[in-house]
Specification:
- By secondary structure, this protein is α+β, with helices and mostly antiparallel strands.
Length: 416
């Protein structure tokens, strides 16, 4: 049964025919008891009858009908009383009528409350299936009690299969944010409420990985209760949005041709690494690379071959450098490399020599053997410069000096 059916199914009134038939049978039994066993037994039976009916009849008007039948039988049964017992019989009937209508009133109150609860369940069921968010509720043991259609689709679990399963089995979290702005889901329902949405990665029953936003809160029976009855979990899929954000970020901070950092990303990284070096009292270096003769390649072989050459250069730079080094394409055939936390200036020179050697062999592109030698300028913090702008200017000037000396070599900037 799905969530809506489960909610609507509870509190459904039994058949009216069955109710009236049961009332008639019980009333006939009372009348027989009055006839055969005397007033004392009958009065007891007439009291038990409406009490029993008050627990079995689900509609207020049927309670009234049953009470009316009992009233008629109670009054008509006076004709069966012996003359010497008539006064006692009247007292018994008065007590029975009081019991019948008091119990009938209580039964109607209960019937109306059950109807209101049934309507609330029906409304809740329709609401849960209509909202766009996925909803899962659990009991105090973290067993699933309800899962709506959207949650079925995202988790891959049907309501029937998920019913009674542990939340961790159906809602399979594989990664979640742990920073202050995006706290993880609480491990148990005893933990604090998380009112705001936060990102989580989950694996569906079919193995699909989704990025979702979720919030979780405990369910209490009363405001004074400190022990939660369960948890409600609300979530929705943001995988498409995250993919779009990644694309936008790549366009903003990555060179689309080579996949290297672009100028904006490079300048941010240079500021960051320079700040780290100042705080730690360490050295760092910046290499400025310009490819000699690249314009000739574009003019003679075309821009498509030139783009392939730039991609090949980027790949060689990645292979020659450490993971913590930052490689960027500033534009055209100009590249920069940030070398954080070098021990001495000689280390930066050693890396520059390695880059020249890595880029020296010809590039094999679509049947063409293309040579593109680099000119590399080196500037070291704090030896040659202490600010990002000056460090970049010093490395650029050193690169032009290397190019003026024939290219295919490295040159360190002059000390400040």
């Amino acid at each position: 049964m799905d969530a809506r059916g489960e909610l609507e199914g509870r509190g459904r009134p039994p058949s009216t025919v069955r109710q009236i038939a049961a009332t008639t049978i019980l009333a006939a039994g009372v009348f027989a008891a009055e006839w055969l066993l005397g007033g004392q037994v009958a009065v007891g039976a007439l009291y038990i009858l409406p009490v029993t009916l008050s627990f079995s009849i689900r509609r207020a008007r049927h309670v009234d009908l049953a009470a009316s039948i009992c009233t008629v039988l109670t009054v008509t049964s006076l004709f069966a009383a012996r003359p010497d017992e008539l006064q006692l019989a009247l007292v018994h009937r008065a007590v029975a009528l009081f019991a019948i209508w008091v119990t009938a009133h209580l039964g109607k109150v209960r019937a109306r409350n059950e109807l209101a609860i049934a309507n609330q369940r029906k409304t809740l069921g329709v609401t849960l299936q209509s909202i766009a968010d996925a909803v899962i509720t659990t009991d105090a043991r973290e067993r699933i009690t309800l899962i709506n259609d959207e949650a079925e689709m995202l988790t891959g679990w049907s309501a029937k299969d998920a019913q009674g399963k542990r939340l961790a089995e159906v809602f399979n979290v594989i990664a979640s944010s742990t920073d202050a702005n995006h706290p993880s889901l609480p491990a148990t329902i005893e933990e604090d409420v998380i009112p705001s949405m936060h990102e989580i990665r989950v694996r569906s029953r079919q193995g699909n990985i989704l990025t979702i936003e979720a919030s979780s809160a405990p369910i209490f029976d009363t405001e004074e209760s400190s022990r939660p009855l369960g948890r409600v979990l609300v979530f929705h899929d943001i995988s498409a949005r995250k993919a779009h954000e990644a694309t936008v970020e790549a366009l903003a901070y990555r060179d689309p041709l080579t996949g290297l950092a672009n100028r904006t990303s490079f300048l941010d990284r240079l500021d960051l690494e320079l700040a780290h070096a100042k705080r730690r009292g360490a050295r760092m270096a910046l290499c400025f690379i310009d490819m000699d003769g690249f314009k000739v390649v574009n003019d003679t072989l075309g821009h498509a071959i030139g783009d392939r050459l730039l991609q090949s250069i980027a790949n060689r730079l990645r292979e020659a450098l450490r993971e913590e080094d930052t490689i960027a394409r500033l534009g055209g055939d100009e590249f920069t490399v940030i070398l954080p936390e070098i021990a001495t200036g000689a280390d930066a020179v050693s890396v520059a020599r390695k880059l020249v050697d890595a880029l020296r062999p010809p590039h094999q592109i679509e049947g063409h053997s293309i040579s593109a030698l680099p000119s590399v300028g080196i500037a070291i913090f704090p030896d040659e410069a202490e600010t990002p702008d000056k460090l970049l200017r010093q490395a650029d000037a050193a690169m032009y000096l290397a190019k003026s000396r024939g290219g295919g070599r490295w040159q360190r900037a002059e000390a400040k």
